Records
---
Amino acid sequence: MCAAALCLAGAAWLMAGHERGLRRARLLFADAGAVALPPWWSWARLLPLIRLRREWLCLPAALTVALVAASPLPLALGAVAVPLVRRWLRAREHRRDSDRRARGVIDLCGATAGELRAGMQPAQALLFAAAATDVLGREEAAVLAAARFGGDVPGALRTAARQPGAEGLAGMAACWRVAVDSGAGLAAGLDRLEAALRAESDQREDLAAQLAGAWSTIALLALLPAAGLAMGWALGADPLSVLFHTPAGIACLVIGGLLETAGLCWAGRIVRAGEKA
C-alpha cells in the first residue's frame, strides 16, 4: 500500500508539472484569439508516464524479493529507490553530454581553423564549422545569428560557454576578440586553443582510466552483502526470512543499509575529489 501510494503521488506530480508546462507554452505561443487548453486527462498524456524506463526496473526486482521473502518491505524499498536511481541515471547522462560537448568544442575549433585556411571569412567559417559539429546546443541560434548578421560573436560564444562541457568556447571567444581588435591570426589562435583543449581532454581520459579500478572496487564492495545473502541461501539457510521477519534481522537490515550507504558515499566522495583535483 505504501509503494502504491508513492507511485500514485509521483504520477500526480508528473502530470501536474506537465500540465503547467503545456499551459504556459500555449499561453506564450497562442495567437491573438482564444486559447484552447487541453483537458486535464488524456491517453496521450498518460502513456508517457507509464512508459518503461530503466529506473522503474527497481519495482519488478523489489517485487520478486518481496514475494520470495513474503514481506512488503522490499517493495517499499524498491519504490524509494526509483527516484534515487533516476537521479543517478540523469547525473550520468549529464556527464556524458558534458564530455560529448567538450569533444565537440575541440572539433569546432579545428573545423573553424580549417575553413579559415581554405579562404573563408571568420563568420562564414564559424557557420560552416558549427553546422558540421552541432555543439552549440540551445545557444546555437544566437551564435549563428551573430555570425550571419554581424552581431557580437564573442559575446554569443561566451554565453554558449556557460553550458556544461562547453567552457572551451570562452577561449574561442577570446581568440575572436583578439583577432578583431588587433588583427592577429584567428586560425593560429584556434589551433593553439584546440591543442590545449585536446591535451586537457586527454588528461581527463587518462585520469578516468586510472580511477576506473577504484570505481570497480567500490561496486564490488557494494555487491558483497548480496553475495553473502546468496551464499547463505545456497548453504540451505533462509537469510531473507531472518532479515524481514525478526526484530534482530530488521535491525541488522537497517544498520547495514545505513553503513552501506555511508560507505558508498564516502568512497565516491574520495574518488570524485581525485577527479576534481
---
Amino acid sequence: MPFRERHIRHFKTLDSIRVPRIMRVVAGMLVSAVLALVLFLAFVPWVQTTSGPGVVTALDPNDRVQEINALVSGRIDKWYVRDGSHVKAGDPILRLADNDPNLIERLNAEQQQLVQQRDAAAAALATAEIDLRRTESLFREGLASRRDFEQASIRVDDLRARLASAEAALTRQAVEASRQSQFLIRAPRDGTILRLDAGDTSTFISAGQTVATFQPDNAERAVELYIDGRDVALVYPGAPVSLLFEGWPAVQFSGWPSIARGTFEGEVISVDPTAQPDGQFRVLVGQAPDAEIPWPDASFVRFGATARGWVLLETVPLGYELWRQLNNFPPRYTQGVNGQQAEPSAR
C-alpha cells in the first residue's frame, strides 16, 4: 500500500471525502477549453490590417470643390443662379456693372476717335513716304538740296512714330473694352452652385473676390484615409482596401474580410511622403478596377462624407496578431512591392 494512502487511512473523515463528479467534469471542460484555445490561436488565420478614418473627395484636383472669382471690380447687377442651382458650361452666374453707367458708350466713342487718329496718321505717313521718294529722286538728279531730303526723312520718321503711338493707344483701349465683357461671370463647366459668397445687388466687389462655390459634375470619387505612422511604411500603391462608408449599413470583420458585409473594395493609389500636422499620413484610395460590387451611387455617398478604411496586409495566425497588438509591434510584412523580403521590427 502506498505511503500516502497508509497515512490517510489514519484520518477517517479525510479518507471518506471524494472529489465531486461535477468538479471533474468542470476540470475536464477547462482543460479542453484551454487546449482548444491554444489550437485556435495557433492555426486560425487572421488578415492583418491597418485602419484609419477618411473622407470622400475627388480623385482629380480639378473635380474638387472650387471657387469662382470675379475677374474685374464692379457692382453686382444681377444674379442668374441661387444655392443648389445646376448649371451648364457657359451659363451666366452673375452680371456686374461698373459704377459709371455710361462706361460702355464712352469706350465706344473713344474707340472711334482712336481709329480716326490711326487712319489719319496712316494717310499722312503714306503721303510723306511719297514725298520722300520724290525728294530723294530730285536730290540724286541735283534738283533738290540735301536739307530738303533730310527734312522729308525726318517727317516720315515722325509720322511713323505717331502711327505706332495711335496703334498702341487703340490696343490699350481694346484691352479695356474686352475687360468690360468680363463683367458677365459664366460657369466654367457643368456642375452645381453650392453657395453664393457675394452680397445682394448693388454690392461692390473687387477683382479676385470669391462670388460662388462650385462643384463640377461627373467627378471621380476617392477616399482620403489617414494612417498611423507606425504602419504607413507597409502601405504601398495597389494594396487592397476594405471601405466602410458613413450611413451605409455594414458588418465589418477586420481579420476576416471575406465574411464582411456592406463594405466595398478599394485600392491604394498613393501615399503622401510627409505627415500631416497631427502625425498621420494621408493615403489616397480609389475604387478597385476589378471590384465585384461598385461603390454606392453619389446620391448615397457624397463628397465630404466620412468613411473608414482597412488596408489589407499579411495573413498570420490569430495568436501572433494578439501578441503583436499586446507588444505594439507593426504588422508582419514579408513581401514588398519589389519582391524584397522584409522582417518585422519592434518599435
---
Amino acid sequence: MADDAENNSEDEFRDMMREFLSGDGDIDPAKLAAAAGLPNDPAMIRHLLDQLQSAMATSGDGINWDIALEQAKNLAAQSTVVSLPAERSKLEQSLHVASLWLNDVTDISELTTEPKLLSRSEWVTLTMPIWTQLAEPVANSIANSLTEVLEQNTPEEMNEMLSGASKMMRNIGGTLFAMQLGQVVGQLASEVVSGGDIGIPLLDEQQAALIPQSVFAFGSGLDIPEEEVHLYLAVRELAHARLFRHAKWLRLQFMTSVTAYAHDIHIDSDAIAELASGFDPNNPEELRDAMTNGSLIPPKSQEQKEALERLETVLALVEGWVDVVTAAATTRLPSRGAIAETVRRRRASGGPAESAFATLVGLELRPRRLREAATMWQLVNDELGSQQRDALWSHPDLMPTAADIDDPAALVARLRDGGSTPDDIDQAISDLLNDESGERPHEGENP
C-alpha cells in the first residue's frame, strides 16, 4: 500500500510537471530557457523541454552528462568554420619547426603521437570528460540542497506529492545544470586556441593540439606576421604537452588536487531557500543569475583556500616553465616578446566563458603567480642551465614550491649545493640503506 501511495504521488507530480513543460503552466518555456542560460531560440527551447521531459522519465539518480556534451557541440558547431587545406598545411609545418626548436632548448623528449588539428566541436568532445569531472561535485551539491530546501519549505498538503518525486527533481535539476555546463564549454570552445591553452591537462598526456580557426583568429588582431604567431603558439602547445608526458605524475597530482578541492564545494542551502522564497515565475532569469554569479557557493573554507593555493602554485609552475622554454625556443622570432605579452595578459584575465565556468563551479583556473614563477625558472636556467632546470620535473619531491617562487635565489643556492647537506628524510634513508648493507657496528663497539 505504501508503494502504491508513493507511485501515485509521483505520478501526480509527473502530471503536474508535464503540464508545466507543455507550456500550460505559469512559466513561459522561453523564460525557462533563459533561466538555463539558453538563447531565445524556438529550437533550443524545444530541445530544453524535451531534455527535461526525458529527465522526468529517467529512473536513475545520476546526471546525464551526455546532455552537456550535446549542448556544447551544438553551440561550438554554430561558430565553426572549416579550415582550408592550405591553412592546415601551414600549421602542420609550424608544429614541425616548433618541435625542432624545442629540441635545442630542452632535454624533455618529443611526443610519441602526432599533434592534432581540431575543430571546435572536436575539442569539446575530447575535453568534456574533464569538464564534467570538475563540475559533478557542484552539480550534485546543488541537487541535494535544492531537494532539501523544497522538502523543508513545501506546504504540508503537498508533502505526500513531493515525497515520491525527490528523485525526479534531482534529475530535472541535474539536467538544467548539465545544459548550463554545455553552454559554458561550448562558448569556451570559441576562445581557446590549443589543447593546453587553459593550463590544465584537458587532453591525454601525450597529445598536443591546435584549433586552426582560433589560431588564425588570435593573430588577426595583431600587427604581427601570422607565421610568427603560428610558430609561437605551436611551440607553447608542444612544450605544454611534452611536460605532461615527461612528468607523468604531474597530471595525476594536478587532477587529484582539483578533484579534492571540488569535492569540498557545497551549496549554501540558506541562499537557495532565500531564492525560492522570493522567486518570481515571470522572472526566471533570477535562477540563472544565481547559478552563474557564484552567490550560491559560500565563502571558501580554510582547507579550500589552502588547496586553491596549491593548485595555483602548480598552475603557475607549469605555465612559467612553458613561458621560459617557449621564449628560449623562439629567439628567431622578432615579435616573440609582443606575442608573449599578449598570451600572458590573455591568461591573466581569461575569457567570458572561463569566467562563467569559475562562477558556475567555484574554481578559477588562472595562474595568478605566472610572472613570478617564470622569473624563478629563468633564474635557474641562467645560473645552472636548462638540464638542471628540467631535472626539477623528474620527481614530485623535486618540484619547486611556493616558497621557491618567493625566493628563487635560495632555490638556486640549494641546487648549486647539489644536495650535499641532506635533510632529515634523506639522512634517514641513507642510514637505513647503510644498515641493510651490513654496515653495522661490531659487537662491543659503540653504535
---
Amino acid sequence: MSQSYRVAILGATGAVGTELLQLLEARKFPISELTLLASERSAGEVRSFRGEELTVEAVSPEKFDAVDIVLASAGGSTSKEWAPIAVKAGAVVVDNSSAFRMDPQVPLVVPEVNPDAVEAHGGVIANPNCTTILMSVAVWPLHQKQPIQRIVASTYQSASGAGARAMEEVKQQARAILQGQVPPTEIFPYPLAFNLFPHNSDLNDQGYCAEEMKMVQETGKIFAASDLRISATCVRVPVLRAHSEAINLEFEQPFDADEAREILKSSPGVKLVEDWQANYFPMPMDASGRDEVLVGRIRQDISHPNGLELWLSGDQIRKGAALNAVQIAELLVERNLLKASAPALAL
C-alpha cells in the first residue's frame, strides 16, 4: 500500500510558501498531515488546502516532533536556526534558502539534472538559486551531448525574486510614477517600475554581486564540473513574475543550432518556443504560472565558431523555487528516502 507523509512548510505565508501549498495539492503529494509554520507576525493566518482551512502556527522546536519532511522557504538565517532542529527531530529538510547550498555535505539538486544526488543527503537537501535552476534545466541536455566549456549569462530578473512584498511595491511604484508622485522604495533600493538596475546583492572584490556568484558556484556543483567557466551579469527588471536569461554557450567543437533545438524539444522541464516569422520567443508573461522553462531563439554565435546562443523565460516562484522543492520531495518518496507515517489518504 502506498504511504503518506507528515509535511511542514516553513515560511508558509510568503510567495514561495503559498506556491508550495498549491503545488502539493495540485500534484497530489501523499500527505497525512500538513503543518504551516511562519513567524509570530504571521501566526493565526488561515490557508486553504484540499478543502480544509489550516491555521498558520508560529515556528517552535516542538512543531517538528511529528514531521517527516520540511519544505523551508523563510530565508537563510531562519533555515540555519531551524533546519538542524528539524533534522534532529527526524525530518528531512528541503531548503530553498542559500544557507546550505555550497556546503559540501549537502546535495544541491535540480531533479532534471542530478536526481541521484538526493541519495547522499544527511537530512538537508538544498534548492538552488532561481536563476541557476532555470539555466540548468535549459543547458544541461546540451551539456550531455557535448560538454560546455564556458557560459556567459545575462539575467533579467523579476520582482518576484524579492518576494510578495516586492511585487506589491512595484505596483505601488508604477501608480505613484504615473500620478507624478515619488515612488516608494522600502524593499528595493531604487524604483524598479519603468526602470532597471544591476542586482543589488553584495559586491565582491572582483565586482561580481552575490546573485551572480550563486550562478557561478552553484552550476559547477550541480553539474559536478568545478572547471566549468561561468560569468554572469544579473539585472533586476520591471517584471512582476518570471525571470528571463540570455545564455551564451561555448563548446569544444561546433554545436549545430538545429541539433540543439531537437535535443531541447524532448528534454524534461523544457518547452521550445520559437516563431521566427513572427519574431516570437519566450516571454515572462507566457512563462508565469507554468512548470516548464521556455527556451527559444537558439542560434549560432557569429563571434565564435563553437558558440551557441539561447534565450529563456521561467517562472521564478514556480520552477525557480517551489516546484523544484516539491520535485525533490517527490524524489525522496519515489526512492524511499523518507519514513512513511501512514497509509495514503484517498484523493
